[in-house]
Design goal:
Rossmann fold, alpha/beta, 15 helices, 2 domains, 417 residues, 8-stranded mixed β-sheet, 40% helix
Length: 417
């Protein structure tokens, strides 16, 4: 089954021959190898690049075992370069090479060589790229299928597709599975036997029970404000655990480095500054989150918020949680400080959007509640409420736009309609 991922192909094309190592990252089973060895390789061939000028090596294949040695890999690639035309080298699972950073940096000295690599999360994370390549690595983050990508291969209506996507997520292999039992078992086993095992092995976690308990707590609380100290109190009161907030923060960093979760930090809109705690945590894929909890907590409002966050990240936005401090008069006439929350501040370049996620707006009271934080923002950037029902885009007298979740997810320019 061919899945169109043109957005990532465009990102790779924009980085061609930029003098840096292009590093394809993302949670395991997200389709990094397919992107590099099928989509990008075929694109090169279609553009007329000669096949013998594309050096593609899947290092996890036993056929290439001898190339896992640093000098052997370097010599092999260099031996393939026999003229001054452009060459492309595509390396899958580069972590099999012990001194891969030295090899990659050596490749940079070959002027007519353009290098692209993928790596496993157990030994190859964003922090590695930033520190090891020292500004010479260019990361391309790959996410699970967006809903728009998912619908290109889903055989059903948009309504059914959204329910399926919300429940089982967008890992590429899911779309080829026929039954709910297949999908749930695949995701549950993947989470436990691949992701959790990778993180525990990579970081040599000794108290695996506490770590797995934390994963469960985070999965249960997507979209809720939290911080390590608050989580420490939960462990102490509910589980009688002595785990510290420092250890919890470390575990959260491990999960983030493995691309399983992402953090949205609070931003004081009026004060124009970040507030370090609390923060919100979202899972990279709703299917993985649901699988971790045995598909027992399918709360549509929280899952919709998680999907909106992920879609914004796929579109290249930086995403924060908005905080607005206001002063209001209570029933006794006293002025009190009150904090209002904007679910998301999405910004990219000079563009900024304030976004509220509301699964339903059953009455004017709920509508006023969602719009209240937006009305307290004194700037001209767009303010949007995304709801679970499918409605045509509309704007009220205050300029606040309301649109349905499907329209938001399916139309790449939905925020600018």
């Amino acid at each position: 089954m061919k899945i169109n991922r043109d957005g990532y192909l465009d990102k790779i094309r924009l980085r061609e021959k930029n003098g840096m190592i292009k590093v394809i990252t993302g949670v395991r089973r997200v389709g990094k190898s397919y992107l590099l060895f099928n989509i990008f390789l075929n694109d090169l061939l279609e553009r007329g690049i000669a096949r013998d000028h594309i050096i593609d090596i899947p290092l996890d294949d036993i056929e290439y075992e001898e190339l896992r040695e640093s000098h052997a890999l370097y010599r092999f690639v260099k031996s393939k370069i026999i003229d001054d035309k452009q060459y492309y080298v595509l390396l899958d699972e580069i972590q099999y090479v012990p001194r891969f950073v030295d090899v990659m940096n050596s490749f940079l000295h070959i002027e007519n060589l353009d290098v692209y690599v993928t790596g496993s999360n157990s030994k190859f994370v964003s922090s590695d790229i930033l520190t090891e390549f020292r500004g010479r690595g260019d990361e391309i983050r790959v996410y699970p299928l967006s809903f728009a990508e998912f619908m290109t291969v889903y055989d059903g209506s948009e309504v059914d597709g959204l329910n399926e996507y919300m429940t089982y997520g967008g890992l590429p292999r899911i779309v080829s599975m026929k039954t709910d039992d297949q999908k749930s078992k695949y995701l549950e086993n993947l989470f436990k036997e691949t992701y959790i095992k990778d993180i525990i092995d990579r970081n040599k976690i000794k108290n695996t029970g506490e770590f797995e308990d934390l994963v469960n707590i985070l999965a249960s609380a997507i979209g809720s404000l939290t911080n390590p100290k608050k989580l420490e109190n939960t462990f102490q009161s509910v589980m009688k655990s002595t785990i510290t907030d420092k250890t919890i923060k470390t575990y959260i960093d491990y999960l983030k480095d493995a691309f399983l979760i992402d953090l949205a930090i609070r931003y004081d809109i009026k004060g124009r500054k970040y507030v370090s705690t609390p923060m919100k945590i979202y899972f990279v894929d709703t299917g993985l989150r649901n699988a971790r909890l045995g598909f027992r907590q399918i709360e549509e409002s929280h899952l919709m918020e998680n999907m909106i966050y992920n879609e914004l990240k796929v579109r290249g936005f930086s995403v924060d949680v908005g905080l607005i401090e206001t002063r209001e008069v209570d029933e006794n006439g006293a002025k009190r400080r009150k904090s209002l929350e904007v679910d998301f501040i999405a910004h990219k370049g000079n563009n900024k959007y304030y976004i509220q996620s509301a699964f339903a707006l059953p009455d004017t009271e709920k509508k006023a509640q969602e719009e209240r934080p937006l009305l307290n923002i004194n700037d001209s950037f767009k303010k949007i409420v995304i709801i679970g029902n499918q409605i045509k885009l509309k704007r009220d007298e205050n300029g606040i736009a309301t649109l349905g979740i499907r329209e938001f997810l399916l139309k790449e320019n939905s925020l600018d309609l």
